[in-house]
Input
Amino acid sequence: MYPLRRNRILRNNSAIRHLVRETILTPSDFLVPLFVVEGHRVKEEIPSMPNYYRLSLDNLEKEAKELWKMGLCAVLLFVKIPENLKDNQGKEALNEHGLMQRAIKAVKNACPEMLVMTDVALDPYSTYGHDGIVADGIILNDATNEILAEMSISHALAGADFVAPSDMMDGRIRIIREALEDEELTSTGIMSYGAKYASGFYGPFRDALDSAPVASDEVPGNKQTYQMDPANRLEAVKEAKMDIEEGADIIMVKPGLCYLDIVRDIRNEIDVPIAVYQVSGEYAMLKAAAEKGWLDHDSVMMEQLISIKRAGASIIASYFAKEAVALMS
Ligand code: PBG
Output
């Protein structure tokens, strides 16, 4: 008789499906991105990210406590900087009383055990919306690295557990690691956005922080000279390996869904944890389709998240974290 093996036996009922399930999502898989703004009692919904908010520090503390209660134990902080504090050097990024520095302290104050990671890049602080210093039509690499290192020290001194450079300058991981060592900040980790693509999926995030690169005579309105070309695969493995050699503790791949082949490639080649960032545009797409009644929100959300983990992610940065965890209990 053929077939001798009946594959459906392992799918017959919920008990057997659970028993043989290879990938299981838990609250501790998630890293929760949070957007912070100045002000008091601010909770502004981001138009292109329904059900996601910019929070002032008081509400950030509340949110951290709520996340902790749900079993979500790691956050990734982003700040929206007022226009008048932006410049080409990202000076405000180094202000020890700046919004990021206060946000780190607020989360630690509300929730001392919460793991706090911080975005390290100049774009929210830059008048150009670029991740580095602009000069003569280009984004300067080495001069930017010096500032990223100082920024990392400032975040670490404020209490950040990990700094997460998302700028894609060459050599920044080594410069940041060395700077942290020089300051004896030896327990601060580095999560490197090692394979970050020049993606259209970051649109809603740039709305959230008002940080989109502006095209001008001086400089292009895209990040293609530093973020990676979506057409490339080998380059991702090379970049990830270099970042690890330079001292990265965790490698991030970003965006998520379109790049799961990259996640698997890197997983097969390296031995540090991989984080995957399911970015703002991925969130917005599902919200929009669900709003129209074209996709079932919860089942598609869970399918996407499990796929990210199955591809090789140890950590998933996702705007869906809270909604997903609420479904798990
Ligand atoms: C800043 C940064 C960006 C994102 C994370 N860090 C935007 C960008 O590179 O332009 C995008 C995250 C998202 O879309 O959810 N360097």
Q: What stands out?
A: The pocket of PBG is lined by residues 119, 121, 123, 131, 166-167, 202, 205-206, 223, 279-280 (CB under 6 Å). Residues 70 and 326 are 8 Å apart (CA to CA). The two ends are 44 Å apart (CA to CA). The mean pLDDT is 96.
